[in-house]
Structure formats: C-alpha cells, structure tokens
C-alpha cells in the first residue's frame, strides 16, 4: 500500500484506473489456478521445513550424546548450538504468530495458516503488518531476522562460505528501484499480494530460519573433530624424571604414546603390574634398592579408532642406580679464608639444589643468589661442609668436604691505588700525591683495604724527621716534608696500620720512596 499528497495528473489517473482493472482481473484469476499454485508452493515449503526440523532433532540428539560422552571436548560448542536453537525457535514462532494474526483477522479464530478461506485477500497482510500499530510489526520482524542473522554470523566467524550463505538466506535488503519508486523489504513481503502468496513467503522465511539453523549447528558439530588431535602414526615413549637414581631413592617415569589424545586413556602394564594412568601417562614408581643398570619393558594398549579392539605397543627403557655423591667446589680457590665471603658451588647428582640441606662445622654457610657463602670462624683450622637431602621422604646424608682455613695475607702499601710502587718517583709527581693505599697482591678476592695510620720520615738538616698521619691521606706536617723533596732525596713510610678482612693489621712491610 502506498499513497501521496501530490495532485494526480490525468496520466496518473489513467494508470491508476488501469491498475484497479488489473487488480480486479487478477483477483478473478487468483481464485483459479494461480491461487492453487500459491497454496501448493506453501504446502511444499512447509513439508520441506518439517523435514529439516526432523533432521535438526537428530543433530541435537547426536550433539547431546557426544557431550555426555566427552563434555571436555564438546560442551562449549554444544552450549552454543543450544543458543542457536533458542534464537531459531523464537524467530520461527514469531513468524508463525504473525501468520495466525492475519488469518484471525481475515477468517476468524476457527481457521489456521494451514487451512483458511481468504486466499485471494490482498489487503489483510498489509493491514496487519504495514498499517496497524504504525507498521511496527513489519519493523519488528525485520529487526528479529537481522538480529538472528548477525548472531549466526558471529558463530561461524572465520568461515566466509558459511557467512555468505547465512547473509543470503536471511537477507532483509530492500529490492532495487523500479520506475523511480523505492520499494522496501517490508512492502515487497506484504503489499499487493493475495494472502495465499503472503503465507507462502512467510513459510519460506520459516524454512530459511530452520535451514540456517541446521547449517550452523552442523558447522559446530563438525568442529568437534577439528578440535581433537589427529594422527596417523603411534610411537611409545618412556620419559623418566631422571636416568640416574640414588640408592635408597626411587625411579620414576612417564609411560605414554607420542601421538597423545587426552580424551582416551591407554592401559599401561609392566610385567603383570597395571600402572595407574594420569592424563594419558602411566605412572611407574619402583624402589632403587641396588646399584647398577636397570632395564624394563612397558606395554601400552589403546582402542583402535575403527574396531575398538585393543592395539598393543611396547617400549624398552633403562635407568642407572648409583651411590650418593656430592660435589662441593670453591669458586675462587681450594682454601677458605677467615674474615671474607668464600663463594662455593654445591650440588648433588640427581637432586635439585633447592632440596639440599647444607651445614658447616668450624664456621657458617648461607645460600645466596648465585650459590653459597662460607665463613670460617676465627681461630678455626678446618672448615667442614656437610650436605644432606630428603630423598623420597627419607632424610639422607650425601657426603661432606673438608677445607683448610687460612687468614687473609697482609696487604702491600703503595702510592698508587690497586698496583705496586716500583722504581723512583718523579719529584713533581711525589709532591702532587695525596696519601697511601693498601692492595692485595696476587689475591683472588676483591677485598677492600683501608689505611688507618702511617709514619713518614726523611733526613732534614742532618737529622731524621718523622710525621704521623691518622688516616690514609698525608697530614699537613707530612705534606710540608714532601714539599721539600729534591732529586735523590729519600722518604720512608713505616709503621703502617690497615683495616682488612674485618680486623686491624700492623704491616711489617715499609715503603721507601726515592725521588728522581
């Protein structure tokens, strides 16, 4: 139905009269073969729709059974399929409800969309869908189809073929312009059509709803197998936690198939013993009671995917049982020094470093970021590092190692930081020096040395003159002596006290400075 506010021209009036005559003629013809054709097409569409609905019932049943057998693999897609069904049922029933409303208004409550009288009525569809309630019913139906279409597209995201199929079958696009007019999807479905034709179009909408439902649910069902592991070769493997086991400990290994499917657990046996299976892996635990090489054969059985019969596979494996051993090695040298941090690396074969318990006799040992730090006690002659661990719930000693304990050697005095003073010193260089340094010559530890006091002596006016500093820097009196230096003059640095390795030392070594 359409109309306008502009005055009609004589030509338009003539076209209108011809249209009325054509409509009347069509109404006469519709009562014959054409109306019967519409009714036959409608029945055919309904029959096809029923067939699809029956197939959908089988599809949902298969989906339900698959979910009951393997919910881990199936449930997510099954729940999505149920959402598709809910959307499809809602839209299908909405279309049927509008069909019933048309028949009710045309023929009364005793008639149904499957059996009605007003087959040639060309006004009732437009009245119900386009005129009453301001045309909200046709808009609501179009919106519902579009929402259903977009939901299905979101489900099949990534499959362009399925997306195009859904868009085509649930299209609500307006038809192309004809002779300057702009028809809409709504007018195409409900205006200027006999009720029999409208019923056929709406039955076709319902069929498209069921067909797209079937396509998308089938798509989801096929995705179940796509998400599972597929393989065409099977190889049995034995994966031990370690090939080396301490006597008194346990050997542990995972027995499994390389082509692993976490939805199908194998049967794993060694000899007559059936192993417990977790996540597809047979758990093998045996006590390591004797030293030496140990071998075994595992048998793995898994159902054939076609026949269901158990197919056996075997794998041979071996492991070594050894005596407990421990490795303790200083990272700097083969002795431990009093008063300094002695870095050590401590490990035990077959045992994680985090499981080790390390103790010290004759000193202390602590675990640091990059290993262990050992500190011998003052006066100690020997440091003993002992290592133990909990092996399979049993505390076990892994061994110990002894270290000689030494004191840190005396540092050497020098006019230069970090290096030795050698040869004569230039007069100008000597006068610019600020103090005395101590350094550890040929000592592997980076050990700080601080000079706490020293005496500077020289001959002046035939007499020995001495001045003392209470730190590493030259005192003012010492600098006065230094300023009078000339080529060939000698200075003596003696009575040197330093702080090193946590204690104060009096150095026996002195330093003679000859100027050049």
How many helices in DSSP terms? 9
Structural class: alpha+beta
Beta content comes to: 25-35%
Q: Trace the largest sheet across and list its strands.
A: 2-9-8-4-5
Task: Let me know the number of strands.
Answer: 24
Question: How would the global form be characterised?
Answer: elongated
Uncertain residue segments? 1-29
What is the makeup of the main sheet? 5 strands, mixed
Q: pLDDT average, as an integer?
A: 83
The share of residues in helices is 25-40%
Radius of gyration, whole Å: 49 Å
Question: What distance lies between the first and last C-alpha atoms, to the nearest angstrom?
Answer: 122 Å
Short synopsis of the structure:
The protein has 516 residues and is α+β, with helices and mostly antiparallel strands. The chain is built from nine helices and 24 strands.
Task: Report on the architecture of this protein.
This protein has 516 residues and is of the alpha+beta class. It is 36% helix and 30% strand. The chain has nine helices and 24 strands. The strands form six sheets. Strands 2-9-8-4-5 form a five-stranded mixed β-sheet, with no helix packed on it. Strands 20, 21, 22, 23 and 24 form a five-stranded antiparallel β-sheet that branches. Strands 1-3-7-6 form a four-stranded antiparallel β-sheet, with no helix packed on it. The protein is elongated, with a radius of gyration of 49 Å. It starts with 9 loop residues before the first helix and ends with a strand.
